[in-house]
Each structure stands twice: as C-alpha cells, then as structure tokens.
Amino acid sequence: MDRHVDVAIIGAGTAGLFALRQVKQVTDSFVVIDGGQLGTTCARVGCMPSKVMIQAADDFHHRQNLDVMGIEGGEDLSMAWPRTMDYVRAMRDSFVEHVMGGPISKLGNELIRSHAEFVEPNVLRAGGETIRAERVIIATGSKPVVPGAWRAFGDRVITTDDLFELAELPGRMAVVGLGVIGLELGQALARMGVEVTGIDMLERVGGLQDDTVNETAVAAMRREFPMWLGTAAELAEAPDGGIRVSAGNNQVDVDKVLVAAGRKPNVDGLGLDQLGIELDQRGVPVYDPQTMKVPGAPIWVAGDANGELPLQHEARDEGQIAGYNAARQTGQGFRRRAPLAIVFSDPNIVTIGEPWQTLKDADILVGTCRFERDQRSRIKHNDTGVARIYADRKNGRIRGASLIAPGGEHMGHLLALAVQHGLTAVDLLRMPFYHPTLEERLQDALRDIANNTTEQPPQPMDLEQIPEPAQQQAAE
What's the pTM? Predict the structure, then answer.
C-alpha cells in the first residue's frame, strides 16, 4: 500500500506534536509515525514524574525543621514507599492522559503505529506501507545510555524508564551520573530514606562549569548523600545477591544501580546512513539550528533526536520551527531563546545564557552574591547558595549566570529575561526588589557589576547607583 503526503512526522513526542501544530495550519496531507510508547518522554519518564517524586521527598524532608518551630511529632512521620510510588504513577498517568487526550486522540488514520525506515530521502517504509512524503520531520526523541556489559545484571540496573515503575524502592542504590537527572533523583531518593551513593567521572555536578558555584553545589549535595567524583564506576556481583559498585578506592554493595549517564538520539534503524546526507559522529544528520533543515535534503530534525538541547521547552521550539518550514517549504530562520537550564535539586542549580567556559576568557565582570546570611533563606531553613552573574565590562550587559540557590528556578527566569533582551545590571537594579524575597539578594551581584563598568553611568543619577555595603545591615 502506498500513501502520498505533504509532510511525514516521525515521532509523536513533544517536538513531533508541536511540529504537527504548524503543519495542520497549512495542510491536511500528513502522517505521524510512531512505534514506541506514546505520551512524550517528559510526561512518561522525564520531567513530570521526577518532579512528583522530588516533591514527595522534599515534603518528607521538611519534617526535620518542624521541632525547632514548635511543631511536635515530626520524628514519628514515615514514608510508605509502595503508596508513594502509587502516587507518583497516578500523577504520571494523569499527565500522559492529558497528552493523549490532545492532538494524538484526533489523528485517526494519520497515525501509523510502527517504526519508520527511510528508503529514499522522501520515501519511508512503516507498518507495511510505503509513504511518499514531500518533506519529512525527524522527531524520534532519545533513549537512556547503559553500558552494554551492565545489561547482564538484568533488572538490578535500571534507568529512569524503569524507576517510576518500581512497586517499592530498594534499600540501597547507587546513582551513576550526577548530571541533571542523577542529581535530582539521587537527592530525592536519599530524602525518601534510600541509602544512596552517587558516582560521576567528572568533578562537577548538575552540568556546572563555574568552579565557585560547583564547589558550593558539591558541598551541599554531599550533606545529603555520599558522592564519589572524578572516577568511573565498575560493577560486579556482590556476595549478598546485590551489585558491588567500585569507583577508585571506594566500594559499596547496593540492591540496584540507577544509570543516569545521559541519553542518546534515537536515530538507530532509520536508515539515515543510506541517504547520502552528512551525519555527525552520533549518526544524527547535520542540520541548521535556525531552520532545523538538513542541507540538500527534504528533511528536518527536531527535539531530542538531534541531541543538542534535550529540554522540553527547546523541543517545543524546535518542533515548531521544523513544522513551520516543512509545511511551508521555506527556509525561515528563527532567533532562539536565551539558554536556560534548571536542576530541581534543593537548592536549585541554574545556568543561564552563554556558558562559563565561553565567557571566562572574555572581557567580562562577575558579580557574586551569597545566601548564607540572607534573611528569607534562613526563614525557609535553606540558606546555602551562591550566584555568579556574568556581564560585559564596558556597559554591564548581562551575558549569563550560574547559581545554586533556594528558589533559583525563579531567579533563573529573571536573568534569562535580562539576557534575552540585552539588559544591563543597572537596568535590573532599576526594577523593584520586594523585601523580604530571595530575589533581592541578587542586588549584591548586580551592584558588583554596575559599580565596575568602564562606561560612565547615565545622568541624572539613579537611586540604584547609591553605594551600599556588600552585606546589608540591621536596617533589613
């Protein structure tokens, strides 16, 4: 059976569904091809169920602060893991149902429940059909990376694809990989009562590049569970039937190992190597990030399938760009949003704008503020943190920032707005900072920058240019 369509979208995840929104505005001649689990990675196994688990863990963890506030009985609280995991799955299922009840439910015959393979750049084979598509969007997502030798340990080695299906949590667990997901879930599991050991080949956590922020983050996380950094993990059978995890001179026996060592683009089996297009070392087509187009072919690549920015909001944007151009047969370039990445650890870890590795050798100013003596942070029993804001030395224009801070997710959005709109430190200082809030501590870092730019400040003088000591005094 042959089918001829204007656009074929391979993958019904976030990028694919947002591409579909654009395609449907222009044509009703399309198909969506997906042979995997529907419901998006974010809703099924990613950002949403992980945040449910994190919330439960944080709520349970707060019992440690009850007694000092005169709230008795906190020491008697306990977590019933089976009920907690039932709750996580119930919430997860509601998120998936929301996705499934949207555009997927209305696809009808336009949805082909099969894996796709390219025959030619605009010819696909899927579900016993040959689909001739004028344009093709690859939005196949990603899958967890697990070393091949570790698969011999069966279900004792798991990924986030498996974690939320556990009926009950193990008593002992190693988390290998302390990037975003590993750090978030490692802390959550530790707060829920699991004996967690974290391991990473790098000396850094949460994707941080700034040494000052990383040092604070490592110290904060080590107060919650042991971490072995700068060494690779090795697995072996343990005498008690568990897994013996070794890293350098360290060794621990655990019941399960959660592998959070990243995800890779899910492009295997598509037959891309037969199309005569340029592929990178991962097998992903080389493409233009402003248009998502593969040069010289009627193919666009969006979302986790390209492996560049594996974030839900980036997948939405890339899907829309690819869908817009594929549906309209245009090469329209789009200005991308300011980079923003958040680790939902406690405190939050956030990176904004240009990365520190790029900026550290540029002519920039770095404004720093700390949260150890911040009044609102102390009230919230969470006064660990540091923020470093990077700005042009000449005029104080905000270029980026790295921080670990309570409520950091909100500060990250404020700073991303500054980067996106080219605002300066003085521009931000002109804004109101309500007292007492966590955000007002950023004024220390912004004043560091504003007081040291090489350009003369504008006249007349702004209130924000009145010199103040780095640490606020009793007036606060």
Answer: 0.93
